[in-house]
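For consistency, the fold was encoded as tokens, as this record shows:
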Amino acid sequence: MKKSMTFFAAFFLIFTVASIFSGCSNKNSQPISDTQFALDTYCTISIYDNVPKKVLDEGFKAIKDVEDKMSVTIKNSEVNQINENAGIRPVKVSPDTFYVIKKAVHFSDVEKGYFDITVGPIVKLWNIGTDKAKVPSPEEIKAKLPLVNYKDIILDEKNMTIMLKNKGMSIDLGGIAKGYAADKVAQVLKKEGVKHAIINLGGDVLTIGTKPDGGNWRIGIQTPFKPRGEYLGIVEVSNKAVVTSGVYERYFKKDGKLYHHILNPFTGYPVDNHLYSVTIITDTSIDGDALSKIFVIGLEEGLKLAESLPGVQAIFVTDDKKVYITSGLKGNFKVTDPEYTLMTK
């Protein structure tokens, strides 16, 4: 995959959610672990079971397989084939790619269009996270906005084909593919008998089982704009995904203004709603990845939506350093940074 992101920007992503492993009483709880660059970020798999290293290797193969099929920077990927044939013909894809795009369409409905994988033409205009990042002109954005509409994705499950209705449209799975990759890694590891593990794909954290001593994993939520690994609070989970989207992950500054990578598909501009980050806690990483784009909806409506979804919890961090949580996290989320305040209703 082309490393379009700068080293430091990509490296920073791995600490968007910092995993805290302290407190394991099992003396044999030191993991076998590896970190590799894939899906435009640094991916770490840590296994706390006595398994051969080949299990780690199989986990990274699963990530690479997702990347080869779904990356927009790999010329012959299935997603690029869909994009190149937009408005021309349907493209036959693998069950993996079909599943992810079908899921993306579902979550676009859930999030009322604020999550939209057809935002590709706008992503390319901004190029945030690359050395070509720039502020597009209003005319450029206006010209591309009509190409953004997830309802123009034509799914044919019988023939396993996908087509974009109009020429110039393009899909970008950056908001959901990492989540799916984490789930695929978990499947591989569980098949090999792994019962205790952490999968961290650039801040998409997925836990398998509990810590070796039977306790919950303690996951730190990254403090916005502070050095990697500094966390504002801790949540305890087992067998859960913890996924964060934040304005501090990828951004650039122009004339003193910060432009981040979370784009509003209706306006074509980075979201400006006084949120720093949104963290989703759910059973699967693909769901957490897609739902973390509740960020775009904003605090009040985003909280309402998160509360309405079964099996979903959320943490909202605002730019005035206040933290709001869904009701299911009461008693299970602790703010540890004195600069931040947990708000209660």
Remarks:
- The chain has two domains: 7-67+176-342, 74-164.
